[in-house]
Amino acid sequence: MFVLSLLPVLWALSAKADFFQFDSISNASTYYFNYIYCNIWEGECQPNQDDATQQVPTRDLWTGFPQDYISLLHQWYCSLGQCCESGDCRITNNITGLARDLQMKLHGQHLAQSVVLKAIQGFINNPESNKPLTLSFHGWSGTGKNFVARIVADNLYRDGVKSECVRLFIAPFHFPHARLVDTYKGQLREAIRDMVLRCPQTLFIFDEAEKLHPGLIDAIKPYMDHYDNVDGVSYRRAIFLFLSNIGGATINDVALDFWHSGQNREDIGMEDLEHRLRAEAMESQGGFAQSELMSGHLIDFFVPFLPLEYRHVKLCARDAYAARGLEPDEGTLDEVAKAMLYVPKEERLFSAQGCKSIPQRINFFLP
Fold it and tell me: In this structure, are 132 and 238 located in the same domain?
């Protein structure tokens, strides 16, 4: 009976490699052969997570298989007890953990906490969404944009940002030369398609998005649009995060206006910022603003990250010490916070560096 259940799988694998010629076995057949040998036939072996032959096959080999065979292979593999309730052990979708981390670890960002949680939760709970989720994070450097992206990855995926279902692109690093934009287009489209074929739910993070060439974003615009599929592949279960410094000055102006008027910082609402962020993003310089992503209104939420105040810097310092197993007193936290730069200078209100540099800065205060 067991052998009969394997026949469709072997049939699928034969399209990629001769199962009995070990030298030419694909990553897929090697993995599943090793699993059967170690766990079903109880061969003498010790699966090693660092050994590529003991890991679930990834990369581009799946693109060579018809979608029906991939589904068949996945169903058979799950029947052996190697899948989770979600259908894929790589995906955790821990919304409770996401809410807790945003509340406990992210300081001074009540808008980002609320918008990101609601957007992610709504997307996860709606498997029939008609487009991928696209969020655009805006604010000064050090206010938490990258930090929130990592929190999202850590709670949606077992391996966080290291997951094979998560891909980070840094515009100046991955796409540095404008003259190679046509080459980058093909590489980027291939990378996104490959990941979506490998993972039923994917996360793409674009850091310094304002530095992306407009042609690059337009090349992947169809993947974020309201299409059932693009060239036979559905991208509706993908999440796109764009991180940008665009709008930082606008966000700071609004926060400063609230402070001057005696209003609480927590009273700042999305209605005070989102339309201004959208307008500034449309008018700003750079490929992000000039792309069809903006003119096509494909960004679901513009998420503002407010400038951090002195009290928030102290909380970040406390967390940095706690990460090292230390419990500093209030005096030490004050010393760290005072060492940061603030603007406006005469009012010493907002931290010009955010929390990004604190882990390194506290080295100067250690005994």
Answer: yes
DSSP states along 216-279:
HHHHHGGGGSS-S-BTTB--TTEEEEEEE-TTHHHHHHHHHHHHHTT--GGG--HHHHHHHHHH
Domain count, the chain: 2
Top pLDDT among 180 and 5 is at: 180
pLDDT at residue 70 in the model = 62
In which domain, by residue range, is 117 found? 95-306
Q: What is the rounded CA–CA span in Å between residue 346 and residue 43?
A: 73
Is-cis flag, bond preceding 200, omega within 30?
no
Q: Which of 55, 7, 57 is nearest to 28 (CA)?
A: 57
Q: Tell me how far apart the 2 most distant CA atoms of the chain are, in Å.
A: 80
pLDDT band at residue 115 using 50, 70 and 90 as cut-offs: very high
Q: What is the pLDDT of residue 47?
A: 43
Least trusted range by pLDDT, from 35-49, 150-164, 338-352 = 35-49
Contact (Cβ atoms closer than 8 angstroms) between residue 270 and residue 303: no
DSSP β-bridge partners for residue 134: 240
Q: Looking at the structure, do residues 185 and 323 belong to the same domain, yes or no?
A: no
Q: For residue 206, what pLDDT band results from cuts at 50, 70 and 90?
A: very high
Residue 15 lies in a domain: no
Q: For residue 309, what is the DSSP state? A: B
For residue 207, the cross-strand partners are 170
Report d(CA 7, CA 309) in Å as an integer.
Answer: 64
